[in-house]
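Q: What changes when S-adenosylmethionine is included in the input?
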Amino acid sequence: MGKGRKKKAFNFQKKDRFMNFQMIKWEKSKGIEFLKKIGIKKNFALLDFGARIGHYSIPAAFIVGKKGKVYALDKNESALDELKEKSEKLSLENIKIVKTDGRLQTDFPDSYFDTVLLYDILHFLNKSQRKILFTEILRMLKKNGILSVYPKHINSDYPMREFENLTIKDIIREIEKFGLIFSKKICDTISHDDFLNYGCVINFKKRNENE
Ligand SMILES: C[S@@+](CC[C@H](N)C(=O)[O-])C[C@H]1O[C@@H](n2cnc3c(N)ncnc32)[C@H](O)[C@@H]1O
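A: The predicted holo structure follows.
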């Protein structure tokens, strides 16, 4: 470096503040629009499985309203504490925090949820764990209920962990074996970790017994 030219240190704090602002704005505006496209409606009971700090639980709570409920489930206590703080600031009393030990079966009753979100979580689970989770989701979903999956980290999108060799078609094929029918793919600018990126989620409907 030439004399007198000081390298400008990257200001992480400033970047964090910007990301924070960008995500908060997304949760209250574009995130709501996106989740409406997924099919989430007023009064719904929704389970956000692996919710972390609630980038999806928050917009979902705005949509389902006071008579609806969003259960934000995670095994990460500090992430859930952050979500609790955020929801209190926004007076979102319809977000219920569910801290687990990572087990994939739950205490929710049969046919309880209108929608279950599995966003950016499945790559953590191996095939036999996913089997337990999909079976559980089928049990918890109402007839015609929606399972929405964000299959991040498949082979074409920052491949990682259990998903590194899988395609979106592989995921659809796997989930359809569990009595869930692929219904649509929705792509947009959506949240990943604490950033926005272009991504696609895939929706499934619970098969009717007479289908
Ligand atoms: C990458 S984050 C995705 C967060 C959120 N769904 C989103 O898209 O912004 C994955 C989350 O899943 C949680 N998780 C992973 N395995 C889990 C399990 N078996 N039970 C509950 N939570 C789990 C992690 O603690 C983490 O908060």
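Observations recorded in class: Residues 50-52, 55-56, 74-76, 79, 100, 102, 104, 119-121, 124, 191 surround S-adenosylmethionine (CB under 6 Å).
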